[in-house]
From TrEMBL:
Keyword field: Signal
InterPro entries referenced in this protein's UniProt entry, alphabetically: Cyanovirin-N_sf (IPR036673)
Name of the protein in question: Cyanovirin-N domain-containing protein
Keyword Signal found: yes
Taxon lineage: Eukaryota, Fungi, Dikarya, Ascomycota, Pezizomycotina
Length: 145
């Protein structure tokens, strides 16, 4: 199911799952993968009768921008146009996206963003700071790639 993307943070957005919570609180870093700009992982579903994990993914290009060679949270940021070769480093202690991005002077540089800062929220909140994604923005399926 296709849903909308939202970015930026700050407030307490009420959700049945929780107040703004980290993406990895509900998803497993061990299964996380990045394909082009799509970040996916197995996450808990909401169907308590058949409690299990669903493959959940979202397009990070809607949530991040290339700001002079640095990745930063932004609604419809479209970093993917000027950043390539992206990958993630995922472990118990880190969850980071790494890309090679163009700077404003058209030089290539390594850009990173700490994805542990991603917060799932109930509705869009425009502000600056931490990258947020609406629960409604997530796509789910029974199995991953």
């Amino acid at each position: 199911m296709k849903r909308f993307f939202v970015t930026a943070l700050v407030a307490l957005a009420v959700s049945p799952r929780a107040l703004a919570q980290a993406f990895l609180n509900n998803c497993t870093w061990q299964t996380a993968m990045l394909v082009d700009s799509y970040l996916g992982a197995y996450c808990n579903n909401d169907n308590w009768e058949i409690y299990s994990y669903d493959w959940t993914w979202f397009d990070t290009s809607y949530c991040l921008m290339n700001s002079g060679g640095q990745l930063a949270p932004a609604s419809n940021g479209d970093y993917w146009r000027t950043c390539k070769g992206c990958s993630i480093r995922a472990s118990k202690t880190e969850f980071v996206i790494n890309c090679t991005c163009l700077t404003s002077s058209y030089k290539l540089t390594t850009a990173t963003y700490d994805l542990t800062n991603v917060r799932l929220v109930h509705q869009q909140i425009e502000s600056s700071g931490i990258m947020t994604v609406s629960w409604d923005a997530l796509n789910t399926s029974a199995t991953g790639p």
